[in-house]
Amino acid sequence: MNRVGTESGALEDVSVSAADAGGGLPRRCMLLRLAAALQAATAAALGLPVVRFLLAPLRSRVAASEWQRLTASADVPLGATIALKYRIPEAEGYRQSAADTGTVWVARRPGRLDAFSAVCTHLGCNVAWEPARNVFACPCHGGLFSAAGQVVGGPPPRPLTQLEIKEEGGAIWVRSKGNRV
Amino acid sequence: MSYLDLVQPTAGDRLAVRALKATARFLEDRIRLVSLVDFLASKPVPHDLNWAYTLGSVCLFLLANQIVTGVLLALYYRPAISEAYESVRHIEEEVTCGWLVRQLHAWGANLMILALCFHMARVLWYGSYKKPREINWLIGVGLLLATLTFGFTGYLLPWDQLSYWASKVGTEIPGALPVIGSVLVKVMRGGEEITGATVGRFYTLHTLVLPGIVLGLVFLHLAIMRYHGITALPGKEHSRKVPFFPHHVMKDAISIYLTLAVLYVLVVVSPWKLHEKADALVTPEGVKPEWYFLWMYQFIKYFPQQIGFMSGKVVGIVLSSGVFGLLALAPVLDFGEGRLIQQRKLFMSLALAVLLGVLSLTVLGYICERDISLLGTTIHFDIKGFPEKVTGK
Ligand code: HEM
Question: So where are chain B's domains?
Answer without folding.
Answer: 40-297
